[in-house]
Amino acid sequence: MKRPTIADIAARAGVTKAAVSFALNGQPGVSAATRERILAIADELGFQPSSAARALSDGRAGAFGLVIDRPARTLGIEPFFVQLIAGIQAELSAGGTALLFTMVEDQAAEIELYRAWWAQHRVDGVFLVDLQLRDRRVGVLRDLRMPAIAFGSPRGSGPLPAVWQDDVAAVGTVVSYLTGLGHRQLARVGGFPRYWHSKLRSDAFAKAAVVAGLDAVSVESDYTSELGADATRKLLLGDRPPTAILYDNDLMALAGLSVAQQMGVDVPGELSIVAWDDSKLCELVHPAITALRRDIAATGVQGARLLMRLAAGEVAANICEPTPVLVERASTGRCAKRPAPLEEPAPA
Amino acid sequence: MKRPTIADIAARAGVTKAAVSFALNGQPGVSAATRERILAIADELGFQPSSAARALSDGRAGAFGLVIDRPARTLGIEPFFVQLIAGIQAELSAGGTALLFTMVEDQAAEIELYRAWWAQHRVDGVFLVDLQLRDRRVGVLRDLRMPAIAFGSPRGSGPLPAVWQDDVAAVGTVVSYLTGLGHRQLARVGGFPRYWHSKLRSDAFAKAAVVAGLDAVSVESDYTSELGADATRKLLLGDRPPTAILYDNDLMALAGLSVAQQMGVDVPGELSIVAWDDSKLCELVHPAITALRRDIAATGVQGARLLMRLAAGEVAANICEPTPVLVERASTGRCAKRPAPLEEPAPA
DNA sequence: TCGAAGCACTATACCGGTTAAGTGTCAATA
DNA sequence: TATTGACACTTAACCGGTATAGTGCTTCGA
């Protein structure tokens, strides 16, 4: 049994390919009776249109692309992307649109992939993640006139529509929560400083600290557990060790917790820990980690809708998703310490 | 600047489309000089063939598919799939082949997707993961005559070529390692019992225990931290609590470690813990978890090669990858306990 | 010196859809 | 009764490649 084409259906129905096409696509040009008959035959044969033929004919690929440029070894543990993809899929599959998903080594490779995909008509548009400060990708996509939307702040997406959360407000939530618990020495372990969302959170953190009149320091990392652990160690051994740390992802928070425990620093007695992005990992460890939760899958859904509209030539405006909410767990508590610096534990 | 087609190149070179096609594809039929000229023009225009046109013409989609049927919330934390995809990509991208990646809710949806993809010519073949005991997918793919390879034991892949590791040998490694440390009461927390790899490991575990003349029990779970934690709790509170537990993934091992610590069971003093599949998570926690390591990305590479051969109509035989090796860390140690049962900690 | 073979290339059909333009039939209208 | 127009379809071009069958020219051998 060959895969049937509209020509097969046309032959059986005693009409031409065009009539079949009209009937299948709900176009005028065939009578109701004929349409019925054609649909019945199509159904009986299990007809599905060839995506290649349709793509060639109407000029759209029926697929979108998502490229992630992060080292694979850290990615596996980032629930963010899987949630995002799950959300995107849920929306796309309804419309029969496929998702090309690729991981690359660096941004140059990512850009080359966009060029190739677009030149080959492989995709109708792409989702951008991890917006960077002077992001070459934005200009390239604009020049290519390739439909694209960004997950991240509109401040970094240039002409591209964005789906974003109010990270500034979320930082405020965390800072006031911690100050409410009596903490006066805060720290934050951020991600790559070249990422917009990392910078925005960093700035917001510094500003909120100034407003609240307290000590706050942000340090950079690369989202891996190694650097998260290093940063924690340095902070705790520093001149003015923090009594609370906000980590930019769950993995680093976990690493930080582990380091604190190894150093004999009690959590939450001496140190409170908060993670940005909640996941099973946060619930899993002991003490469970207080986290900022957002609905990442919902963000994916919105992004998919936005890109579909954009690719269809409709106007597409930024979408602001709900601000992350704080899920309180056992890793945060009242600050038990005087403003005086900690005694430094002897180096192992 | 429109995206150039072979017709544009032909016009510039003063030849026909056919000549251009011959030149670009290294076919005979054009002189060396003309070929040079055509290639130069193609290069100058930045020509890339339309994937849709090529797909329509030569009947292949230039893409493979990978569908994962697991709840998204657990997937995010499974490094296995990301590593596998990274390996697959690395190999496919060299040949300009794309990967359609999708997550679904259940097996019925997965099968529907295969049918749709095949009918629509969207893919030239698919990668199968999580082989199950009587796996409907295998029969469906055979009936569709759709090229497919499996990641997992050939015992479960039926007529499909497989890329696999010798899990039985790996189980043997772990069991003899643990008995060498003096453990006599072993347990294993497996995944879904309907998965072939889970069953194979389970059987191998039981057999190895019989051979070594010791107590061994396997319990089932769903790879989530919740069930991993539950299983650990039950085992430790049971009649004959194990002194060592092998977990089928890193996440459950982590959950098990956490539960043990909450129950006041010392690791590795009273309980040794081993994880199947190594990852950053295993190094991150305290004590770090001893794990079975395999090169998952390499497995992906092999799988991609195999599927490319299969889709090209070449013969494709099973490929056996190296047996996982044990990476010793702090979560395992000499058994300090008498064969007598543990005292049950009072329930919290 | 003529036929055959080889070469370089053209003309064209084809893959499977979509769609603009054209055709024949019938009913409504002037 | 001739004209118009709506309807239901057909014809054929088109998307951008690939592949097969030709065509005209050169070269070689008998």
Description of the molecule:
- The structure is a homodimer of 348-residue chains.
- Chain A has a 6-stranded parallel beta sheet, with helices on both faces. A 6-stranded mixed beta sheet of chain A has the order 7-6-8-9-10-12, sandwiched between helices.
- By secondary structure, chain A is α/β, with parallel strands linked by helices.
- Chain A has 15 helices and 12 strands.
- The radius of gyration of chain A is 26 Å and the shape is elongated.
- At the A-B interface, α4, α5, α6, β2 and α7 of A face α4, α5, α6, β2 and α7 of B.
- Chain A binds a DNA duplex (30 and 30 nucleotides) through α2 and α4.
Q: Layout of SSEs?
A:
Two copies of one chain form a homodimer.
Chain A: H1 6-13, H2 17-24, H3 32-45, H4 51-58, E1 63-68, H5 72-75, H6 79-94, E2 98-103, H7 107-119, E3 126-128, H8 136-144, E4 148-151, H9 154-157, E5 162-164, H10 167-180, E6 185-189, H11 196-212, E7 215-219, H12 225-237, E8 244-247, H13 250-262, E9 272-276, H14 280-284, E10 290-293, H15 296-311, E11 319-320, E12 325-327
Parallel strand pairs in A: 1-2, 1-3, 3-4, 4-5, 5-11, 6-7, 6-8, 8-9, 9-10
Antiparallel strand pairs in A: 10-12
Helix pairs in contact in A: 1-2, 1-3, 2-3, 6-15, 7-8, 10-11, 12-13
The structure holds a DNA duplex (30 and 30 nucleotides).
Number of helices of chain A: 15
Q: Tell me the total number of β-strands of chain A.
A: 12
Distance between the termini of chain A: 71 Å
Per the principal axes of the C-alpha atoms, what is the gross shape of chain A?
Answer: elongated
